[in-house]
């Protein structure tokens, strides 16, 4: 039996991926860019064993067995990595024919899946990376990102640490739709992320179905697709120059525009709740009180939980501010984190 265990981190987009031009290959309608969080805080851990004695492929997610035959996206990742392994075995007959062995996959998150954090990105990235290690594939991370993309779009960005772009590409077969690292995690150590768990409720509309509803019904989405290319360039520049003013404004504007296209979807999709909107207002008031100099920036994915970017220096004050205006409920305190603020705070710096 051959067995491998790997972990992959969560990434939080600052220029959002929302919309597919090909739902089978998972090809997006725009480029996106994210920051990979520290693995110490949030990660998915996947163990895979290959054994010719196993009857068939099996999957356990957070300790519970799932029907792997129903998981088409996971199947895509199996198919692609097995095909690469098969090619190696065809060329070298001394290799163990692992591509023909059934696999047992066991995956878990070190954070509550119900918290609505980006578990599919880290989960599918961990799956593809572990398969690549198990099969001893010589492929680059960018190659693997094309496979992880077919598991869950945002997963392709979790294969890299630091600041990562997903280039949408233009080829119909998706060969140029892949992730590339813009800067490593060591590039901007002063930048920190704070994850505020606003609600642990499972989101009503999944990203997968929500983004297609937006593509089909939102006129505003067409406008967004004109705006994103310029934003991507400006964001790359802001990151390379460690320009927090530009980074913060672009991050907040892009989050707001993403939630606006959700609202423009028909019927509308609501991901933010009153607490999320309260945090948006608080961050703007905090920045205004600092003479309009951005000290913090918020962003929200397809759910109400806030991620706040700020410098290490200012983060302590920001946590106190949020804890003051949005104190955690007693129930949350006991069922959730030991952290008194009901937030998961990134430890030191960002990065894989
Ligand atoms: C709002 O990657 O979960 O988090 O490709 O259908 O699996 P699928 O969608 P997914 O969508 C993530 C959307 C987002 C923005 C982002 O991460 O860029």
From TrEMBL:
Coiled-coil regions listed: none
Pathway, per record: Isoprenoid biosynthesis; isopentenyl diphosphate biosynthesis via mevalonate pathway; isopentenyl diphosphate from (R)-mevalonate: step 3/3
Keywords: ATP-binding, Lipid biosynthesis, Lipid metabolism, Lyase, Nucleotide-binding, Steroid biosynthesis, Steroid metabolism, Sterol biosynthesis, Sterol metabolism
GO biological process: isopentenyl diphosphate biosynthetic process, mevalonate pathway; sterol biosynthetic process
Catalytic activity: (R)-5-diphosphomevalonate + ATP = isopentenyl diphosphate + ADP + phosphate + CO2
Enzyme Commission designation: 4.1.1.33
Enzyme class: lyase
MF terms (GO), sorted A to Z: ATP binding; diphosphomevalonate decarboxylase activity
The UniProt record lists the keyword Lipid biosynthesis: yes
Domain of life per record: Eukaryota
GO CC, alphabetical: cytosol
Domain Diphosphomevalonate decarboxylase-like N-terminal, residue spans: 8-179
Pfam families linked to this entry: MDD_C, MVD-like_N
Domain Mvd1 C-terminal residue range list: 193-352
Protein family: Belongs to the diphosphomevalonate decarboxylase family.
Protein's name according to its UniProt entry: Diphosphomevalonate decarboxylase
Organism: Absidia repens
Organism placement in taxonomy: Eukaryota, Fungi, Fungi incertae sedis, Mucoromycota, Mucoromycotina
């Amino acid at each position: 039996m051959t067995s491998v265990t790997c972990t992959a981190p969560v990434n939080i987009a600052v220029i959002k991926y929302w919309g597919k031009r090909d739902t089978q290959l998972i090809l997006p309608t725009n480029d996106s860019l994210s920051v990979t969080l520290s693995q110490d805080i949030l990660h998915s851990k996947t163990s895979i064993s290959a054994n010719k004695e196993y009857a068939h492929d099996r999957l356990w997610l957070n300790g519970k067995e799932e029907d792997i035959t129903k998981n088409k996206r996971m199947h895509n990742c199996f198919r692609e990595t097995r095909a690469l392994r098969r090619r190696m075995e065809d060329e070298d007959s001394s290799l163990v024919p692992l591509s023909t062995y059934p696999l047992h996959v066991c995956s878990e998150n070190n954070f509550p899946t119900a918290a609505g954090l980006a578990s599919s990105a880290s989960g599918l990235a961990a799956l593809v990376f572990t398969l690549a290690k198990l099969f001893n594939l010589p492929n680059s991370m960018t190659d693997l990102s094309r496979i992880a993309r077919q598991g869950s779009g945002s997963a392709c960005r979790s294969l890299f640490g630091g600041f990562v772009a997903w280039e949408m590409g233009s080829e119909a077969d998706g060969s140029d739709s892949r992730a590339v690292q813009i800067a490593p995690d060591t590039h901007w150590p002063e930048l920190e992320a704070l994850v505020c768990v606003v609600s642990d409720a499972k989101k009503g509309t999944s990203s997968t179905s929500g983004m297609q509803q937006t593509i089909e019904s939102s006129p505003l989405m067409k406008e967004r697709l004109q705006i994103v290319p310029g934003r991507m360039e400006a964001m790359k520049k802001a990151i390379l120059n460690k320009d927090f003013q530009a980074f913060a404004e672009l991050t907040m504007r892009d989050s707001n525009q993403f939630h606006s296209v959700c609202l423009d979807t028909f019927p509308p999709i609501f991901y933010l709740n009153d607490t999320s909107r309260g945090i948006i207002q608080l961050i703007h008031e905090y920045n205004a009180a600092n003479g309009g100099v951005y000290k913090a920036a918020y962003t929200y994915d397809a759910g109400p939980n806030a991620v706040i970017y700020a410098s290490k220096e200012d983060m302590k004050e920001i946590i106190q501010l949020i804890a003051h205006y949005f104190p955690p409920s007693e129930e949350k305190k006991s069922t959730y984190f030991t952290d008194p603020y009901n937030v998961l705070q990134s430890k030191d710096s960002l990065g894989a």
